Each structure stands twice: as C-alpha cells, then as structure tokens.
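re: ur question from the group chat, yeah i did fold both. here u go
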Amino acid sequence: MSTITYFQFHVALLVPALLVLSAISSVRRRAGSSDVRPSGVVVVSVVALAYTIPWDNYLIEVGVWRYGTGAVAVRIWNAPLEEYLFILIQPILVALWLHYLKRPPKAGSESLSVTRRARIAGAAAGLGIGGVGLGLLARPATLYLGAILAWAGPVLALQWGFGWPYLWRRRRTLAIGVGAPTAYLWAADWLALRYGIWELAPAYTTGWNLAGLPVEEATFFAVTNLFVVQGLLLYAWVLDGRRRPSPTEKG
C-alpha cells in the first residue's frame, strides 16, 4: 500500500521544481537569447502526450508496473490522471531548465544544411537502437527495457536523421540540458518506488539497478529527456535558419 498518493508526489516534487525553474529562468535569461521557443514547448508537449499515452497504457495493461493501493485518484483508460499530468509536466520542466542555460553566441547562425549521408547515418543509429529493443522483447525479463528502446528508436531516428551534426556541435548544452533534469527525476522516481506509489513487476524487469534505481526506469527518464532537449534544440535551429537573411537581403 502506498504511503503517499501520486497527486502528493506531484505537489511535493514536481510543482516546486517547476516554480523554482520558472523563477530563475525568468531572472537569469531576460537579457539573453535562448534555445527554447514557446511554440516549441507546445509542439514537444503535444507530441509527448500523443506518442507516450498508448505505449504507457499498453504496458500497464500487460502488467509491467502497477500503482499502490490508494495511490491514484481516477483512471482514464488504464493509466491514472496523475500519469498524464506527469507526461505533460516533464517536457515543461526540462524546457525551463534548458531556457536557463547559456546559449552560445553563434548557435542561431548555423546552416540548416546536412548531407544525405549524415542523415542516413543518424536515422540508422536510431533505428538500430529500436532494433535492439525489438530483440529484447522476446524475453519476459527484458520486456520493459526492450519496450523502452523499441519505442525510443523511431524518435531518435527522426531527430538524429534530421540534424545530428547540429546536435553534436551543441553537445555540451545537450549533455547539461539532459543530465540535470534526469538526475532529479531519477531521485523522484526512486522515492516513488520506495513509497509504493508505483512498483515494477519482477517478471518483466532485469533486476539490474543503478544506485538503487531499476535500470529500466533510469533508461526511460534519460531517453525521454533526450527527446525533449533534442526536439527543442532542433526546433530553435530550424526557426533561426528560416529567419536568417539571405546574402542578397544583407547587401
């Protein structure tokens, strides 16, 4: 039985983080440029909901994880309302952190040009990860890990195929943008598991842990935060590229 509810989890851990990041981002970024566009946050959040909801509900139906008795208020389909809120809050949380980070002066002036070979290589890398995930689905003990990687593959293929060279040039921002929110959500997830808000089925998990956190959960938050940061960086890159004046306009 859960000792705290999923809603209390939001109030205790996610809402304060949103408020703090909103405050510091507003103060520290007033005078500088940012990689975050409000329209980009909307697009990424809507895509996150649309892409995650069917996958999430399927895994709940299969029994990969379940929620503690009394932990959730109401369910929509198989998932609780609080789960949908989490899916919506996570990209906003990550976007606020990315907005806080300093943007390199030349980041908005980079060409949108990417070679065909580079696009194919990026897409192949993402699909390769998805292929590994599909292979892991064959065994119950690796089903959850496989489901994460198989689900992540198409998104990574799309993002890397579209602009991995730009993401590589922005690797420092990417690493910091993904790293800090991931560490925070790892800690939050560890607490949620400890207090019984949700629990994973041993039959569908490897039993491997990273500092006490199941490797599947660690992978999930790392991958989803990577989706968000890459999506926001690429979105800003495209907008900047389209707004950049041509040589004739400059002259």
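okk and heres the other one u asked abt
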Amino acid sequence: MAVHVVRYTPRTGSRTARLLEHAIAQLDPAPVVTDLATTLPPLFDTTRVDGYVARNYGGIEPAAETAAALAPMDRYVEQLRAADRIILATPMYNFGLPAAVKAWFDAVIQRDRTWTVRDGAYEGWLTGHRALLITTSSGQYEDGPGSYDLLTPTVRQLFGFMGFAGVDVVAGQGTAAPAEVVDRRMAQARAEIDRVIAAWKSEAPTSRAQPAR
C-alpha cells in the first residue's frame, strides 16, 4: 500500500498535525509527504493557465519556460497517481479550505491526467484510490445542507471528481471547548484514525490511475 501525505499544518502546536503524526506512526513503510506549508504550491497565473489549457485541452506542447512553470504542478500529479491512499491533513480556515490546499487541488485536477471527458460525461481516473481527510476546527458544525462546514463536502467533491473510491473524514471539531472536552474529542479522533488505517491495511488496492494520454 503506497500512501502519500499532503499536509498543511503551519501553526505551532497544531492539533491537526498531532492527529496526522498519530496516523503516520502506523504506516510502514513511511509515506511520501508533501508539506504545503513549507513549500507553497504554485497558483494559476497567466503563464500556467494558458500553458495548461493549450497542452491539456489543445494538445500543444508548451515552450520550455511554460513547461518549467507547470513542472511543480505536474510533480504533484505524479505523486498522486503513484499512491494507493492519500492522507490530507488541514485545518479549517473560515469554514473552508486554506488557500494552499485549494491550490494543490487546482494543480492535480488535470484533464487527461486525473480525469477526462468520455461520451459527454466526466470520468475520474483514480478509481483505485481512497483518501483520509484529517481536519480540526475551533467550532463544531453539523454536516449537511446549511452547515458552516464547507471544507468536508468540498474535499469529498474534488477527490470524487478524480474517481476516488471513497473519502473517510476524521474531524476534530470544537477545539475551543474546555480542555477536558477537547481531550476527549481528540481521543475519539485518534480512535477513528486507527479504524481507517486498519481498514486500509486489510484491503488490497484494486486499480491504478489510467495512463496519461
């Protein structure tokens, strides 16, 4: 089982980071880790977006300068495609994804690399992949329509668009509560991580991404 970790845990003492380290300690071999707080992912500026559209939609190979600008985004795609399981660890910022995590998703959701259009319908290519979202938030929010939690449904939608077979969510919410309550919630989150990792270890990966075209 090849596991790739994508983390954005910039705050000193991050509870999200503590939960992630609990998960990583159970993985052997150690996973490949992309730390978005250490190296921020590139954004779609004019050079990158024009080069991406020309290459991935028009089949036009980019000039050397444009290819170099796209290279960091393409490396994210290669890491994602090479994994069987993805752990995404991020706090909730203002009810949603931090900008760095959204930029990572923008980098890896590439036509004819992680998804395509077939017979007029979207088709995700990473059909053998599963993801675990580890997240924390100071508030505690209900799931479903009207919830302030915009992060969880967004992550499920984006991984699902790329064909992921499923996304498990461990949400350590309500970290602004009294310490004894937070400790109990973090213990529950660690137990849920244990359950997910154990289930992963018992499963055989079923499919790799389709080859790039």
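fwiw on the second one: The longest helix spans residues 179-202. Strands lie at 3-7, 32-35, 85-89, 115-118, 121-124, 130-137, 166-173. idk if thats what u expected
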